[in-house]
Amino acid sequence: MTEPDGQVKIHLGPVPLVLPPPLAAIAVEQAADPARPRTPLARIARIPLLFPGRAPDQPIAARRLRNKLRRHGITPVPGKHAALVA
Q1: What is the pLDDT of residue 43?
Q2: Cα torsion through 70, 76, 78, 84, rounded to 10
Q3: Which positions ≥6 away from 32 have C-beta within 8 Å?
Q4: Which of 23, 31, 81, 25 is nearest to 51 (CA)?
Q5: Which of 27, 32, 39, 71 is deepest in the core (most CB within 10 A)?
Q6: Contact in structure between 66 and 76 (CB atoms under 8 Å)
Q7: Positive/negative CA dihedral, 56, 62, 64, 65
């Protein structure tokens, strides 16, 4: 997650995203101390995920993550377009 240059990147698709410092600190903290698994099946999952989906070994679906972000007032589409332009 953390690169040698100090940047924190997450992979939500084919291109890794560089997180700004406030979000980077939260992501690093979450990765170091993930939430306790909710189900017995999640406890035996081999891949610890920052954003787990319904199945414990699968990441959250893009649509579901987008909807969760929108509930908190975060619109990911403008950021995605800005990243693509950059």
Answers
A1: 59
A2: -170
A3: none
A4: 31
A5: 27
A6: yes
A7: positive
